[in-house]
Amino acid sequence: MSVTLNFILVMIGSALGGAGRYAADLFFPYAPPNSSLPVATLAVNVIGSLLAGLFIGLSLPGGPLYTTRGTLFLVTGFCGGFTTFSAFSLHTLAMLQEGEPYLALVYIGLSVVLCVIAAGIGYLIGAEM
Protein backbone atom coordinates (compact mmCIF):
# COMPACT_ATOMS: atom_id res chain seq x y z
CA MET A 1 0.00 0.00 0.00
CA SER A 2 2.86 2.38 0.77
CA VAL A 3 4.27 2.34 -2.76
CA THR A 4 0.77 2.69 -4.21
CA LEU A 5 0.05 5.70 -2.01
CA ASN A 6 3.38 7.25 -3.03
CA PHE A 7 2.45 6.86 -6.72
CA ILE A 8 -0.95 8.43 -6.05
CA LEU A 9 0.67 11.39 -4.27
CA VAL A 10 3.08 11.95 -7.17
CA MET A 11 0.24 11.69 -9.70
CA ILE A 12 -1.97 14.19 -7.84
CA GLY A 13 0.95 16.57 -7.37
CA SER A 14 1.86 16.25 -11.05
CA ALA A 15 -1.72 16.94 -12.11
CA LEU A 16 -1.83 20.10 -9.99
CA GLY A 17 1.58 21.20 -11.23
CA GLY A 18 0.58 20.56 -14.84
CA ALA A 19 -2.58 22.61 -14.37
CA GLY A 20 -0.48 25.42 -12.93
CA ARG A 21 1.84 25.17 -15.92
CA TYR A 22 -1.10 25.49 -18.32
CA ALA A 23 -2.47 28.46 -16.34
CA ALA A 24 0.91 30.19 -16.67
CA ASP A 25 0.67 29.86 -20.46
CA LEU A 26 -2.71 31.58 -20.33
CA PHE A 27 -1.57 34.41 -18.06
CA PHE A 28 1.96 35.00 -19.42
CA PRO A 29 1.78 35.46 -23.18
CA TYR A 30 4.96 36.04 -25.11
CA ALA A 31 6.49 39.26 -23.88
CA PRO A 32 7.88 41.81 -24.38
CA PRO A 33 5.66 42.74 -27.31
CA ASN A 34 6.97 41.65 -30.72
CA SER A 35 9.36 39.21 -29.06
CA SER A 36 9.44 35.44 -29.14
CA LEU A 37 10.89 35.15 -25.63
CA PRO A 38 8.83 32.42 -23.90
CA VAL A 39 8.11 34.26 -20.66
CA ALA A 40 5.69 31.63 -19.32
CA THR A 41 8.25 28.83 -19.57
CA LEU A 42 10.96 31.00 -18.02
CA ALA A 43 8.59 32.06 -15.23
CA VAL A 44 7.42 28.55 -14.32
CA ASN A 45 10.96 27.19 -14.37
CA VAL A 46 12.23 29.98 -12.07
CA ILE A 47 9.20 29.77 -9.76
CA GLY A 48 9.34 25.96 -9.79
CA SER A 49 13.05 26.03 -8.93
CA LEU A 50 12.34 28.41 -6.05
CA LEU A 51 9.55 26.15 -4.79
CA ALA A 52 11.63 22.98 -5.18
CA GLY A 53 14.46 24.55 -3.18
CA LEU A 54 11.98 25.77 -0.55
CA PHE A 55 10.31 22.37 -0.23
CA ILE A 56 13.65 20.57 0.05
CA GLY A 57 14.77 23.08 2.68
CA LEU A 58 11.53 22.50 4.59
CA SER A 59 12.06 18.74 4.42
CA LEU A 60 15.38 18.79 6.27
CA PRO A 61 15.42 16.82 9.55
CA GLY A 62 13.20 18.63 12.04
CA GLY A 63 11.51 20.66 9.30
CA PRO A 64 7.75 20.83 8.82
CA LEU A 65 7.91 18.71 5.64
CA TYR A 66 10.29 16.09 6.99
CA THR A 67 8.41 13.23 5.35
CA THR A 68 9.03 11.25 2.21
CA ARG A 69 5.40 11.64 1.18
CA GLY A 70 5.46 15.42 1.47
CA THR A 71 8.57 15.57 -0.70
CA LEU A 72 7.09 13.14 -3.23
CA PHE A 73 3.89 15.18 -3.50
CA LEU A 74 5.45 18.66 -3.59
CA VAL A 75 8.85 18.21 -5.27
CA THR A 76 8.54 15.12 -7.47
CA GLY A 77 4.84 15.63 -8.19
CA PHE A 78 3.94 19.32 -8.16
CA CYS A 79 7.30 20.83 -9.14
CA GLY A 80 7.92 18.05 -11.64
CA GLY A 81 4.56 18.69 -13.30
CA PHE A 82 4.89 22.47 -13.10
CA THR A 83 8.39 22.98 -14.50
CA THR A 84 9.36 21.92 -17.97
CA PHE A 85 12.79 21.31 -19.36
CA SER A 86 11.33 19.91 -22.56
CA ALA A 87 9.49 23.17 -23.29
CA PHE A 88 12.67 25.10 -22.50
CA SER A 89 14.54 22.95 -25.02
CA LEU A 90 11.88 23.31 -27.70
CA HIS A 91 11.64 27.09 -27.25
CA THR A 92 15.41 27.36 -27.56
CA LEU A 93 15.43 25.20 -30.68
CA ALA A 94 12.65 27.32 -32.22
CA MET A 95 14.62 30.52 -31.59
CA LEU A 96 17.67 29.01 -33.27
CA GLN A 97 15.60 27.80 -36.23
CA GLU A 98 14.02 31.25 -36.57
CA GLY A 99 17.44 32.88 -36.82
CA GLU A 100 17.49 34.36 -33.32
CA PRO A 101 20.68 32.89 -31.84
CA TYR A 102 21.30 35.84 -29.51
CA LEU A 103 17.80 35.64 -28.05
CA ALA A 104 18.33 31.88 -27.61
CA LEU A 105 21.57 32.53 -25.70
CA VAL A 106 19.88 35.15 -23.51
CA TYR A 107 17.07 32.71 -22.79
CA ILE A 108 19.48 29.89 -21.95
CA GLY A 109 21.51 32.17 -19.69
CA LEU A 110 18.48 33.59 -17.91
CA SER A 111 16.97 30.15 -17.43
CA VAL A 112 20.09 28.57 -15.98
CA VAL A 113 21.19 31.47 -13.79
CA LEU A 114 17.75 32.45 -12.47
CA CYS A 115 16.68 28.86 -11.80
CA VAL A 116 19.84 28.01 -9.86
CA ILE A 117 19.60 31.25 -7.85
CA ALA A 118 15.89 30.66 -7.18
CA ALA A 119 16.53 27.07 -6.03
CA GLY A 120 19.26 28.31 -3.70
CA ILE A 121 17.07 31.06 -2.25
CA GLY A 122 14.20 28.65 -1.77
CA TYR A 123 16.46 26.15 -0.05
CA LEU A 124 17.88 28.79 2.30
CA ILE A 125 14.40 30.01 3.21
CA GLY A 126 13.12 26.48 3.76
CA ALA A 127 16.14 25.46 5.81
CA GLU A 128 15.59 28.42 8.16
CA MET A 129 11.92 27.65 8.83
Automatic annotation (TrEMBL):
Keywords of this entry: Cell inner membrane, Cell membrane, Ion channel, Ion transport, Membrane, Metal-binding, Sodium, Transmembrane, Transmembrane helix, Transport
InterPro entries given in the database record: FluC
UniProt keyword Nucleotide-binding present: no
Task performed by this protein: Fluoride-specific ion channel. Important for reducing fluoride concentration in the cell, thus reducing its toxicity.
Transmembrane segments: 39-60, 72-96, 102-125
GO molecular function: fluoride channel activity; metal ion binding
Membrane topology value: Multi-pass membrane protein
Protein name: Fluoride-specific ion channel FluC
GO cellular component, as recorded: plasma membrane
Taxonomy, superkingdom: Bacteria
Gene Ontology biological process terms, A to Z: cellular detoxification of fluoride
Main location: membrane
Protein family (similarity comment): Belongs to the fluoride channel Fluc/FEX (TC 1.A.43) family.
Pfam families, sorted: CRCB
Catalytic activity: fluoride(in) = fluoride(out)
Taxon lineage: Bacteria, Pseudomonadati, Pseudomonadota, Alphaproteobacteria, Rhodospirillales
Regulation: Na(+) is not transported, but it plays an essential structural role and its presence is essential for fluoride channel function.
Binding site for Na(+): G80, T83
Subcellular location per the Swiss-Prot or TrEMBL entry: Cell membrane
